[in-house]
Design goal:
- This is LysR substrate-binding domain-containing protein.
- It comes from Vreelandella sulfidaeris.
- The protein has one domain.
- 22% of the residues lie in helices and 0% in strands.
- The mean pLDDT is 87.
Length: 88
């Protein structure tokens, strides 16, 4: 039959590329959530790691990531409290 059903995040759909899909709005069925990234303290951060983080989340600049990695566990969350995170 060539049919199927899937749940796909809105941010993962490209209307130009996915013109053969029918999307139904279902955000009212799911609670909002925040994606978090964990980095082991003491990890040597290579350039490509910073690049990935900033592409994934533009507010995670090299300076902000370095500041978070050197902050104590009690202070790292406060570095991000003033940010308005995008919602998709």
């Amino acid at each position: 039959m060539g049919m199927g059903v899937g749940i796909v995040a809105h941010m993962a759909v490209d209307e130009a590329l996915d013109d053969d899909l029918v999307a139904l709005e279902a955000s009212h069925l799911f609670a909002s959530s925040t994606t978090k990234i964990g980095i082991r303290r003491g990890t040597f951060m290579r350039g490509y790691m910073y690049d990935f983080l900033e592409r994934f989340a533009p507010h995670l600049t090299r300076d902000r990531v370095d500041e978070a990695l050197t902050a104590g566990p009690r202070h790292e969350q406060s570095l991000f409290d003033d940010l308005d995170l995008p919602e998709y």
